[in-house]
Structures are given as C-alpha cells and as structure tokens.
Specification:
Rossmann fold; 438 residues; single chain; elongated; 6% strand; mainly alpha; YacP-like
C-alpha cells in the first residue's frame, strides 16, 4: 500500500517512524531497521526511507509502537482525528492522513485520498499562480514593446517629413540648375570636338616619334648587346687562359718537386759540362708512370692511391656511374650522400696534391638538387640542362691545359675512350668503390 500513498503523506509517515525508532529499545528494533537506527537523526528519515516505509507496511508490531509514539507526541492531532466530527477543516491533510494510516483508523483511506486531492490542488494552485505571474510579465513586455513601437513610429514619421522637405528643395535646385547644365553640355561638346581634333594630331605625332624612338632603342640595344658580348667573351677568355696557365704552372711546379723528391736530385742547377757524358733520354715525362702496373685487377684499390699520389692531379669522378655500380638500391640522394662522405675522407689525405671533382647527371630531373653538402676538398658539379654528365666530364677534361695530369674515374667505355683521346688517364669505377670500402 505504501506505493499508493501521496509523496507528502509518505514522507510524513517515514518521519514519524524515524523519530519513533530512535526511542525504541534495542531488543524490539526490527532486524531490517538495525542499520537505519545507526544513522544520525538528521539523516535517518532520508537515508532509511525505504526500509522504514516497508516496516510500517509489513511489521504490525513496529507499526503499533510507532502508533504509540504518535499518540504521545501528537495527542491533539490524534484527538482531533478520532473525534466524532472528524478532523477540523484547518488541519493539515498530509499530517492527518499519515496519522490515520499509522493508527489504521477506519477512514484512513479516505483521509489519504483527501490529502492526495489537497496536494494536487496545491500543485495546481501553484501552477496557476505561476501562469498568472507569467501572463502579467508577458503583458508588461507587450506594453513596453507597444510603447517602443509608438516612439519609433513617431521618429520615423518626423524623419519622413524631413526627407520630403529635403527632396522638394532638391527638386527646386535641380530645376534651377537645368539651364546651367544645358549650357554646360553645349560648351562641353564644343570643347570635346576641339579636344578630339587635338588628340588626333597629338596621336599622329606620338606614333611618328614612337616609331623613331623604337628604332633608336632597338639600335641601342643591339650596340649594348654587342658590347656586352664582346666584354664577356674577352673576360671569359682571359679568365680561362689565366686559370689554365696558373693550373699548368702549379702542376709543373708540383711535378718538378715530386720528381726531385723521388730522384733525390740536388737543389743546385747542373752545369752544361756535367751533362756532356749523360746518355740521351728519348721519352718525355709521364706523370702516371708506375700507376696501374701490369697484373693489377681493375678493382684494385691501390690504383686510386697511386693516382692520388701524382703531383698536381685533377681527379674527375663520374658520380652516378660509381654509385649505381655500388649502391644502386638506394635513392639518388642517398647515393650522392654516401659517395661524397667517402670522397671527403679520401680527399682530406690528398688535399695538398690533388683536385677532386664529382660530376652528377641532372638531365633527367625537373629541378637540380639544391643544398648539396660538399666535403672539404671535393667540388660537386651537375650537368647543364639538356646535357649528360658525359658532356660535362669531357668539357672539364678539355678545359685543362696540356701537360696537367688528369684522371677520370668511370666504367662507361665511351666516356673512357673520349677522355683518353683528350690525354686523360681513366680508372675503373670498381677501383674507386673498393678504395672507399677499404
């Protein structure tokens, strides 16, 4: 039956049961309420509401003890509810229904229903009051909006009157200025005709002068281009000749010093009389004599050491021909990085005697690689647009002066033959790979 009680009646029943439970002896406390009794008095009714309501409903002994407590605690209410005339109209319905439910009075069901109706009426009255207050608030807002609309309407009406007055004044001024505008239009047409005539004359003069100026500018550009080309050719030719002469001089000096050290020649100059009995030597000096002697394999790393020992040497390396034979599984960037790392260590030991240049083929890429880190003593060159690395290697060999030792590291037969015809020594790429892996 507890689920049929209104919420306020049930709350009042639980409060009475919690207060009566606090005064019971431990021996008569139902087992289901032992834990509830340990709660604080302020929390007992809230935390133990379910077991307290169940005990009131199901345990007649406990309900009887709660009824005794209610008779002691609320004698006036008990007397009023048990009077022949029933409870007074002013008595609180929820409290009366709770006492009748606990005492199990004959009409307790009617009192519970009355309390439920009273509670529903109170809720309805509260909602009605809230709705009335909301209606009043909305009516006040509507009235405020109406006042604001009237104010804005008056302002708009005043602005409309002002706009009409201004429009009338503008029309009056427009009519007054109409004659002046027509006279100005007539004068403007006359001026336009005169200006058109003058513009035609000026345009013809400008075309004539423009054609003459264009012809003169073209002539000036031709003369400037010819002068610039002449200066550039002279400068390039002079720079190339000076570079070739300086490299040849350094090579000859290095070769002479190397020969002097190798043959242990005295520093003094020999006298003509000292050379009368010396036999004739029909062969010229070969800087690569003894390099790659007979019986050596093409991949012998010692060949690279012998080549680098030649004084004044310029070692030119066909970059991708070497890397694709040794590191073909890597990307081109990784191939370049690995080769340059090995050449950096190799060139560091021959920095005073050899010049090292690595040529990479850039004809198959859209843009040349940028930011290539060049080790100390190693020059990195990419072929020109539309050209192969082979062309750049031949250009480098051809640029060297006759007499300077030049060695080209490549396994490309065509490149090797072309460079050999230009006077360069060729070394197999396998020898370079073996030397770098050592």
């Amino acid at each position: 039956m507890t689920e049929t009680l209104p919420a306020d009646v049930r709350s009042q029943v639980v409060v009475y049961a919690a207060e009566a439970l606090a005064e019971l002896a431990d021996a008569v406390v139902p087992a289901s309420l032992v834990a509830v009794r340990r709660f604080k008095a302020s929390r007992r009714a809230r935390l133990g509401a379910v077991p307290l309501a169940a005990a009131i409903e199901q345990d007649a002994h406990f309900r009887g003890r709660v009824a005794e407590w209610v008779r002691r605690a609320n004698p006036d209410l008990v007397a009023a509810i048990t009077a022949p005339d029933g409870p007074p109209p002013a008595a609180p319905p929820a409290q009366m229904a709770a006492i009748a439910y606990i005492l199990r009075l004959p009409d307790w069901v009617a009192l519970v229903e009355e309390a439920a109706r009273s509670s529903a009426q109170e809720v309805s009255s509260a909602r009605m009051d809230e709705a009335t207050r909301e209606i009043s608030r909305l009516q006040e807002q509507i009235e405020a909006v109406r006042r604001l609309a009237r104010t804005e309407q008056e302002q708009l009406r005043a602005q409309l009157d002002e706009a009409r007055a201004e429009a009338e004044e503008a029309r009056r001024r427009l009519r007054a200025s109409g004659d002046r505008v027509r006279r100005a239009e007539i004068a403007a047409r006359e001026i336009s005709v005169a200006a058109e005539t003058a513009r035609d004359i000026a345009a013809q003069a400008a075309r004539d002068s423009g054609a003459e100026a264009k012809r003169l500018r073209a002539r000036v550009h031709e003369l400037e281009a010819a002068a610039s080309a002449t200066r550039r050719d002279n400068r390039d030719s002079r720079s190339m000749d000076e570079a070739r002469l300086r490299v040849l001089l350094d090579t000859l000096m290095a070769a002479a010093n190397g020969v002097r050290r190798e043959l242990s020649l005295p520093t003094t100059v020999a006298r003509p009389a000292d050379l009368i009995s010396r036999p004739e030597n029909d062969r010229g000096f070969d800087p690569f004599s003894g390099v790659g002697g007979r019986g050596r394999a093409d991949d012998d790393p010692a060949i690279i050491d012998d080549v680098l020992a030649v004084p004044g040497l310029h070692l030119i390396i066909d970059g991708y021909n070497v890397t694709k034979r040794g590191y073909g599984a890597l990307t081109l960037q990784a191939q370049r990085a690995r080769l340059l790392a090995g050449l950096g260590a190799l060139a560091g030991r021959a920095l005073d005697t050899a010049e090292v240049t690595v040529v990479f083929d850039a004809t198959a890429v859209v843009a040349r690689p940028v930011g290539v880190a060049m080790p100390r003593g190693v020059r990195v060159v990419f072929s020109q647009a539309g050209e192969l690395a082979d062309d750049e290697i031949r250009r480098l060999v051809r640029a060297e002066p006759p007499g300077r030792p030049v060695a080209v590291v490549t396994s490309d037969r065509e490149v090797a033959e072309n460079c050999a015809s230009l006077g360069a020594r060729t070394v197999s790429s396998d020898a370079m790979l073996s030397r770098l892996d050592r």
